[in-house]
Design a protein that fits this description.
heterodimer, A: 582 residues, alpha/beta, ABC transporter transmembrane region fold, Rossmann fold, elongated, B: 610 residues, six-stranded mixed beta sheet, 10% strand
């Protein structure tokens, strides 16, 4: 973390170099354009001095024709215009490409980092990183080429001033140490509040995302007024912080603005005195004043550059906190390790936790290839966690999981996903067509997708959708009912013909008639090992064996009839009977 | 199921009329009407501009005065005058800086307050929109409207606003001074700038439309980002990473392309403006030198005039510099207005005419109600049903038969397309929102929890609920043992959407959250679908006990709920096809008896009848 302790200037320099290294050509062209602009600006100033002496003040006899002056003025302006175009276009390219790079890198991290990352990070905050933070991080690049090129302007101006009059040049030079002091004070003070602003932007985004995500619940709870208050509070904190930064800027900007004027006053005082003594001509003084006025632009641009830097640096650091998270390297692609056909599953002494809390603690379970095992347990007993871990979503705190003898962690990229499918309890559908939600960009034929939808008892309702399987469902599939979503999600698993299929109460929202149909399809049409979380007897009956999960471990395994001897198990699964009997 | 998917992708919130139609003046007019605070900003803005303008004009005026009177005047070098002028100028600079500082602070305060108001208003409006509208919109896009779009405006407030305040005044002031030197030359300069107007207008229109497209692309990127984050588990479990990465890359690339294309208008704008200014400058020099005497302008005057024309170029190009940010802000403002213009389907009654629900259990009467989302096929047709107060009603039927929609209408998450819903004898549309929120509580299928503790989430069920209320709700539902088993009990944080709890556990919290409100009408939409049978039965018993003094309508696939109910409503394809008690319906041998047979088959086949 040492880099966060470096001075702001160094961190700013590193930020700039990251962009320059990635996009050297646009930056270089922009710089050439900026230099061209500086040259044109200097040329114009020189030209005006020349015009003053040779066209305006000169005697009639020695006067150059004004038309020549006009042509020169317009000629320089055209050159200046071309240079501006170059600078703007290529600078925008450099800036926007840098944004694109950082935004992509960030989004790729969101895809590549393990589930733990998403469990601890707020989606709204992640959105703010990808939008506001990336935008702000590149703000400093906007004035970059200009700021670099005006250094040339400063040098040329100072040399010209020196040639015109060394003493006048000396007077002019005092503005630079003044600028350095003012900027240093400003950037130091503004760093912390700038970081706070970005944090608050993230907070507003968090509130917005959570609130819209839970819109249905907000409505059912009648929490709209409270949510609005929450948003107002977060926005107020952002506003207050922005005003705090604004106050600092309100001191900084007028100071920078006043600097060239104060310098000009000093210049005129000394210059007038020199003209009075006869050691300088009025032309010298006009030239010096004109040259000095050229310094207003560099001071302004460099001031702007320095003003932007703290915000950009702290924003990029927020982005880097995600980019610095290592992506676990997938095992090298080796030969296929899993055998053909249904897979066996061997779990030994497995422990899995979220934070410090172990949800599973000592799970051991053997499932033979082709076997169907029902996983039964009370709410919160860890059934979902167990299935998610087998699907490779969780880190193991202890123990091992093997598929037909191969350790889960040593499987090559893709092999696990091809062999194992988990149907989640909460079906997540993408805002995409039903076909894409099932196929997931594998380019399977429509026959496969239709077949899978049929097995999942989804064929009829999908056909009835406005565009059939091509109908786009809303985000999270909200335009479908809960049971319909679950069936599409089931089809997504079935279409892959998995060799280990895990169903996590995947038909909980499906009505009994349809559920029977689905169960019949699963019983008859699949050549797979099946691990299924079950609540209803019908599902449990589907299984060759039942594993009863309690207290973070497998308390017992056996057939349903055998397990009925256990009081806990019996009261859990026959609750509906008991209720009906009463 | 006929559903709102029909309009998907077209009717997203905020994508009001085609982006091409954005009219800058229209946006400004509406913007000012919407945020009257802006008008109060105007004097401050004028003050800032004036001070800054004075600050910048000091130098040329000084040059002229010192040159003409202190150096090359008839009296030669006059140190006294030079000193006096310099000190006066210095004093002016200091006053200007102090005044600018004050005005800048006021400006940022007002600007930020306007943005705050706009953001909160847009946010509030989004929550007022119906569920159908929410279903059609991506979360990320909605978030973009209250974050990214407002940030684009904030960017303008920080960089553009100042420029627009200072520079027009500088231009006018410079022109005034120029006029003082020579009105003829000033007119010449002005006339030569005139051709710019149609050119700028042409560019401006294209630029703002391009920025409208940028806003769309940004929102699209955020939509995909949000989905990627929400779908983290599915993406990982199904090896969907490559496809998602490609989709995100595509969104980012499209955003980049839109930005570059918006940019080109700006890049080509300034050089042309600069050229016009240079032509004007050249013309002024030629005219001044050629006809100096006739125009009554001397050499010193012409030097100053040329200086002033140069001075005029700078504010013009500075406005040019912020033109892009300005157009981006206007386009963003337009998008936010689009949100505020999205019609609200469920309109709350006027507070003066609003009625209160009676206390205690609430009767439900549904009269000839039909409902359809947008122009789609009706989801409910001609529903007529009367439920006495204190009854326990089960709603059953196949998925997609309209059960959830029916319950949503009872909670007024939407209004019927035709027909009336009367709760406690009052037309639901006339009930005051607060009374409705107190009296009616729906527990949706989706056990969404806020990222807070279990206790907080339960307390969200009723404004002002205390820890003791939350504990009492948990106790009443028999959930205390479950809560005690959690690492931090009631203080256990539940994570995003409640993700640290299992789906079933989330439903338990959602139920306690409803219990704490103690409503007169409780609507359960498969509120216990993910809970194990034992817990579900225990909850059913607890709820039945609590149902004394409350009307309960439950949507259930697990027909054990229906077996116990006073009244069963059987939905099929948007109609109530059967209603009555469980026993009667089983006797009747219709839709319900088939459902029930499957249910018994699925749950009891192997268990010995005791």
């Amino acid at each position: 973390m040492s880099r966060y302790r470096d001075g702001l200037a160094r961190r700013g320099f590193r930020l700039i170099m990251r962009s320059v290294r990635a996009h050297p050509i646009p930056h270089a062209v922009a710089l050439i354009g900026a230099l061209g602009f500086v040259a044109a600006t200097v040329g114009t100033a020189w030209l005006l001095g020349w015009i003053t002496d040779h066209v305006i003040i000169a005697d009639e006899a020695e006067r150059t024709r004004p038309a020549v002056a006009a042509i020169l003025v317009i000629g320089i302006s055209v050159a200046s215009g071309v240079s501006v175009l170059m600078r703007r276009w290529f600078l925008a390219m450099a800036e926007l490409r840098t944004q694109r790079d950082w935004r992509r890198a960030l989004l790729h991290r969101y895809v590549d980092l393990p589930m733990d990352f998403h469990r601890e990070r707020d989606p709204g905050e992640l959105l703010a990183h990808a939008d506001s933070d990336v935008n702000t991080a590149t703000m400093v690049l906007k004035p970059l080429a200009f700021a670099v090129s005006v250094v040339v302007l400063v040098i040329v101006t100072m040399v010209a001033l020196f040639v015109a009059h060394p003493l006048l040049a000396l007077i002019a030079a005092i503005v630079f140490p003044a600028l350095a002091v003012i900027s240093r004070i400003y950037t130091r003070r503004v760093e912390a509040p700038s970081a706070e602003v970005q944090r608050r932007v993230g907070e507003v985004s968090e509130v917005a995302h959570e609130s819209f995500d839970g819109a249905v619940v907000v409505k059912t709870l009648g929490r709209e007024p409270m949510e609005v208050e929450r948003m107002r509070a977060a926005s107020q904190r952002l506003r207050d912080e922005r005003i705090r930064v604004g106050r600092m800027r309100a001191t900084f900007e007028p100071s920078i603005d006043a600097l060239p004027t104060v310098g000009a006053i000093a210049l005129l005082l000394v210059g007038a005195w020199l003209v009075g003594r006869g050691s300088a001509t009025p032309g010298d003084l006009v030239l010096a004043a004109t040259l000095f006025s050229l310094l207003a632009l560099p001071l302004f641009i460099v001031g702007f550059f320095l003003e932007e830097m703290p915000r950009s640096v702290v924003s990029l650091e927020r982005v880097d906190r995600v980019l610095d998270r290592p992506v676990p390297a997938p095992p090298a692609a080796g030969p296929r390790m899993l055998p053909e056909g249904p897979l066996g599953l061997e779990i030994e002494d497995l422990a899995v936790g979220y934070g410090s809390r172990l949800v599973l603690d000592g799970v051991s379970l053997q499932v033979r290839p082709g076997e169907t095992v029902a996983l039964v347990g009370a709410t919160g007993s860890g059934k979902s966690t167990l299935l998610e871990t087998v699907a490779g979503l969780n880190d193991l705190a202890r123990g091992s999981i093997r598929l037909s003898g191969t350790d889960l962690g040593s499987l090559g990229p893709g092999e696990l996903h091809e062999a194992v499918a988990l149907v989640f309890q909460e079906a997540f559908l993408f805002a995409d067509s039903v076909v894409e939600n099932v196929d997931m960009k594998r380019g399977r034929g429509p026959g496969d997708v239709t077949g899978a939808l049929g097995s999942a008892a989804a064929g009829a309702f999908v056909d009835a959708l406005p565009d059939g399987a091509a109908t786009v469902v809303g985000e999270r599939g909200v335009t479908l009912s809960g049971g319909q979503r679950q069936r599409v999600a089931l089809a997504r698993a079935l279409v892959r013909a998995p060799r280990l299929l895990m169903l996590d109460d995947a038909t909980s929202a499906v009505d009994p008639v349809v559920e029977s149909e689905i169960l019949a399809n699963l019983r008859n049409g699949l050549d797979t090992t099946l691990l299924v979380v079950a609540h209803r007897i019908s599902t449990i009956e589907l299984a060759d064996r039942v594993a009863y999960l309690a207290g973070g471990r497998i308390a017992s395994t056996g057939t349903h009839e055998e397990l009925l001897a256990l009081d806990d198990y019996r009261s859990l699964v026959s609750a509906y009977e008991q209720a009906a009997a009463q | 199921m006929s559903d709102p998917a029909v309009d998907l992708g077209r009717a997203q919130v905020g994508d009001a009329p085609a982006t091409e139609d954005i009219k800058a003046l229209h946006v400004l007019r509406r913007g000012f009407a919407m945020s009257p605070e802006l008008r109060r900003c105007m004097p401050v803005i004028a003050a800032v501009g004036l001070f800054a303008a004075v600050g910048r004009l000091i130098v040329p005026v000084m040059v002229q005065l010192v040159l003409d009177h202190g150096v090359i005047g008839p009296d030669g070098y006059r140190p006294g005058l030079v000193w006096t002028l310099s000190l006066a100028a210095l004093a002016t600079v200091l006053v200007v800086a102090a005044a600018s500082r004050f005005a800048l602070i006021r400006l940022v305060q007002m600007a930020e307050s306007v943005l705050l108001g706009l953001r909160v208003r847009a946010f509030e409006h989004i929550h007022r929109l119906s569920l159908a509208t929410h279903s059609e919109s991506r979360r990320g896009v909605l978030v973009a409207r209250v974050t990214s779009d407002i940030e684009a405006m904030a960017m303008f407030m920080q960089w553009g606003a100042m420029s627009w305040t200072i520079n027009p005044i500088l231009i006018v002031a410079t022109l005034a001074v120029m006029f003082f030197y020579s009105w003829q030359l000033t007119l010449l300069v002005l006339v030569l700038h005139l051709p710019l107007l149609p050119y700028l207008r042409w560019i401006q229109r294209r630029q703002i439309a391009a920025h409208g497209r940028v806003r769309d692309r940004v929102a699209e990127t955020m939509g995909h980002t949000s989905e990627t984050v929400s779908a983290a588990a599915v993406i990982r479990a199904y090896g969907y990473r490559n496809a998602v990465r490609a989709r995100l890359d595509n969104a980012v690339d499209r955003q980049y392309a839109a930005q570059m294309s918006a940019f080109k208008w700006w890049a080509f704008m300034l050089p042309v403006v600069d050229l016009a200014s240079s032509v004007a400058l050249a013309a002024a020099i030629v005219a001044g030198v050629t006809w100096g005497e006739e125009l009554g302008i001397g050499a010193g005057g012409l030097v100053a005039f040329v200086f002033l024309v140069r001075l005029l170029i700078r504010p013009i190009s500075e406005i040019g510099e912020v033109f892009d940010t300005t157009q981006a802000a206007l386009a963003a403002w337009w998008k936010v207005m689009g949100v505020l213009d999205t019609p609200v389907d469920v309109v709350e009654p006027d507070p003066s005419d609003a009625e209160e629900l009676p206390a205690g259990p609430l009767a439900v009467e549904v009269r000839d109600v039909s409902f359809s989302y947008r122009a789609a096929e009706p989801v409910l047709r001609g529903i007529d049903v009367a439920v006495p107060a204190d009854a326990d009603v089960a709603v059953v039927g196949e998925t997609g038969s309209g059960k959830t929609t029916f319950v949503r209408l009872l909670a007024r998450l939407a209004d019927p397309t035709s027909g009336d819903v009367l709760i406690g004898g009052v037309d639901l549309r006339a009930v005051a929102p607060d009374s409705r929120r107190r009296g009616i509580r729906m527990v949706p299928q989706d056990g969404f929890l806020f990222a807070a503790t279990i206790e907080d989430n339960i307390c969200y069920g009723r404004p002002g609920a205390t820890e003791a209320d939350a504990a009492a709700a948990v106790e009443a539902l028999g959930l205390r043992r479950w809560v005690e088993g959690l690492p931090a009990g009631m203080r256990t944080p539940v994570g995003q959407r409640g993700g640290r709890l299992s789906v079933g556990e989330r439903q338990l919290v959602a139920l306690a959250r409803a219990q704490v409100a103690d409503p007169g009408l409780l609507l359960l939409d498969e509120a216990t679908s993910a809970v194990d049978p034992e817990t579900e039965e225990a909850l059913a018993v607890a709820l039945a006990h609590l149902a004394q003094g409350r009307t309960t309508v439950s949507v259930a696939h697990r027909l054990s709920t229906a077996e116990r109910a006073d009244l069963v409503l059987v939905f099929d394809d948007g109609r109530i096809v059967e209603q009555g008690r469980h026993d009667e319906l089983v006797e009747a041998g219709g839709v319900y008896s088939r459902l029930h047979q499957s249910w018994v088959g699925n749950t009891r086949r192997a268990a010995p009848r005791v």
